[in-house]
Amino acid sequence: MAETALTTEQIIEAAEDVLRRFGPAKATVVDVARALGVSHGTVYRHFPSKAALRAAVTRRWLDRAHAALPAIATGSQSPDRRLRLWLEALYGAKKRKALDDPELFATYSVLAAESGSVLDEHLTTLESQLAVIIAEGQDDGIFARDGDPLTLAQIVFQATARFHDPVYAPLWSAPAADRDFAALVGLVLRGLAAR
Amino acid sequence: MAETALTTEQIIEAAEDVLRRFGPAKATVVDVARALGVSHGTVYRHFPSKAALRAAVTRRWLDRAHAALPAIATGSQSPDRRLRLWLEALYGAKKRKALDDPELFATYSVLAAESGSVLDEHLTTLESQLAVIIAEGQDDGIFARDGDPLTLAQIVFQATARFHDPVYAPLWSAPAADRDFAALVGLVLRGLAAR
DNA sequence: GGGATGACAGATTTCAATATCTGTCATCCC
DNA sequence: GGGATGACAGATATTGAAATCTGTCATCCC
């Protein structure tokens, strides 16, 4: 069992590969097992269902895609600048992935949509990063103090949905997209600012 | 030909009825012709294609759904109040339709998505209504003067997408939806306000 | 003449038979 | 013992033949 031990991580990697090659509609557990040279029963020893395996792949992908954001949220710059940088990093990462490999991006959009709980957890994480920035901005007197930081974070997240929700990905390559994004961030920052 | 003359309007009405009953996936031109008691060739005398007929139905539905908005845009109240009322009317109309008859709403969501030009034209109309309100607000000194009204209107429209884009319809019945909407409108209005 | 018709070709959809997949579990083998 | 296996039942997907639909047009009929 020594060097040939099949790890959960290996299965996730194989599943990611199969999804990349076949797409979400065609990728099967049997494909994953075949890629690993084991029977599909073995995969079910590590994951209770196909959905759970796909959820694990999705979770890892979402975490990696937004790995740079926590550092921005807790950075040393002023909160308003950090908020702008954070939103730009989120939009930039999504846009780059969507344009670099549209098929793969579409695959992960489907995966994220199908495992709602993974997505919800991810979005909650992002919103709490935003909330940290906003709370510090309120403490510094840069942002208006009326309003709970987490609620404001959710509102800011909703207001910028067009620039991070995958359903809008086709619009991110429009000529005016980056200009519109900058203007929207400007509006949001003026909305948050202390009077 | 006197009283039995088949009008374009009658065909649109029959098509609307067929779409309501069968849904966008099943409704056919033959169904529409059958409902009118004519051959399907006759329908093609009035519309160049199935897509054009469906586009006509969509156009009429969109116009009727938002018939109340122009009056609000040109109303007598202050621009900031009008902006809030206009956005509330838009969200309210969509939400009511989505909750009253989800199937019909889904049908029209599909129709709107499939005939992009009709939708684009409709959105342009809505944005120009917003632009009128914003321009007046700038003239009155209520809104900041930096920024072209039409661009600002587009940004406001994008910022509130979550509360009018049909893809988000499932979220409109969430308990927090109305509260979030009010908070978002508040943020947008503060963002537009003159300092 | 001008609008309605229905036969037609090619494209699309439906349907049922067939194949594959998901998830379980008794069995195997190191 | 503990992990891997593969046969199995029910669910889902694929496939190809048959049916229907879209769009055209020569013809009909008021």
Automatic annotation (TrEMBL), chains A, B:
Superkingdom of origin organism: Bacteria
- According to UniProt, the name of this protein is TetR family transcriptional regulator
Give the keywords, sorted.
DNA-binding, Transcription, Transcription regulation
Q: Where is the HTH tetR-type domain?
A: 5-65
Listed PANTHER family: HTH-TYPE TRANSCRIPTIONAL REGULATOR RUTR, TRANSCRIPTIONAL REGULATORY PROTEIN
Q: Which residues bind DNA?
A: 28-47
Database matches in Pfam families: TetR_C_27, TetR_N
